[in-house]
Design a protein that fits this description.
Layout (H helix, E strand, L loop, with lengths): L4 E6 L9 H5 L4 E3 L5 E3 L7 H10 L5 E5 L4 E3 L1
Antiparallel strand pairs: 1-4, 2-3, 4-5
Bound molecules: iron/sulfur cluster.
């Protein structure tokens, strides 16, 4: 059972612009002008998709928290 996702953070120092998160959840993640992922809308994909996107990141730059602020991933 997956807790409800409350917050998604992209660590800009870790992000290498690989864009696999965007391939999986384009409604949630986009690349900005520095080729770093930004969260455009955390509510536009279901929790499972967001976790898949986070797990697809080769540098584990996507940090996912539940609504209580507990870290779900990584
Ligand atoms: S998958 Fe990771 S490294 Fe690639 S754009 Fe997304 S956050 Fe950045």
């Amino acid at each position: 059972m997956i807790n409800k996702i409350g917050k998604i953070v992209v660590d800009r120092d870790l992000c290498i612009g690989a864009a696999s998160c965007i391939a999986i959840a384009p409604e949630v993640f986009q690349l900005d002008e520095e080729n770093k992922a930004i969260v455009v809308n955390p509510k536009r994909a279901d929790d499972e998709t967001i976790l898949l996107a986070a797990k697809s990141c080769p540098t584990k730059a996507i940090i996912v928290f539940d609504e209580e602020g507990n870290q779900l991933y990584p």
